[in-house]
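Changelog note: in this version the structure field was regenerated for every chain. One regenerated record is shown below for reference.
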Amino acid sequence: MLSVSNVSLRFGDRKLFEDVNIQFNPGNCYGLIGANGAGKSTCLKIVSGERQPQTGNGAMNPNDPLAGLKQDHFAYEEHEVLETVIMGHERLYDIMKEKDEIYAKAENMTEDDGMRAAELEGEFAELNGWEAESEAAILLQGLGISADYHHMKMSELTGSEKVKVLLAQALFGDPDVLLLDEPTNHLDIAAIHWLNEFLMNFNNTVIVVSHDRHFLNTVCTHIADLDFGKIELYAGNYDFWYESSQLALKLAQEQNKKKEEKVKELQDFIARFSANAS
């Protein structure tokens, strides 16, 4: 479970968030929507811990893996495609690198090295490390990156191919919380369809920012509407939120109309009373 408690953030005189409280539960996909500049991407950064609010905090178990879609498409230029995906599970990747360094010593390995290697092998197995490459390959192929590309350097890929690899990186390792900022940008129809299926079968928490209405309708179980520094949570997909918000707006307009009619009646009464009194 992930919760955001009493979060406030200002940029100068501009209020971005004011005492925001919201809880994100496992098994749900939350579509974070709002006008451009409302603070959707900043909200994701607060949830991930990348940015600290001025008040409040985003709270989750620090041992629960959190993954997000990286926005820097040139951060892994010297790494192979398959390796870049596995880097999405930071602890598993660190174990793999440390193991390789120990085994590279060959005849110069010490007893301490051997004991450390045994510890790493145990943790590697617990994290399902022996299946890491095949799982990463499945994600890549699902997104349209064939096996021919898996051992190429990231620098050899096109921009749209890099986006797919970074998306596979975010999905890799079954994170407890998955943060996706505009994940369908630069994806072809086949890749979007595959992503839809993946997220609909994902059992943990997803928070996604997207302008793709069809995508939000397909994958979201809830809509988190960010507006005027607050976040309102609605159960259902984007269309359900839209219908609900339009109904709420209509009711508010009717209430305002009734208030205006009452004010007008009162003004007319006062005018008549004043005329009679004179």
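Spot check on this record: The CA atoms of residues 33 and 225 lie 5 Å apart. Strands lie at 2-11, 14-24, 29-33, 55-59, 66-68, 177-181, 205-209, 222-227, 230-235.
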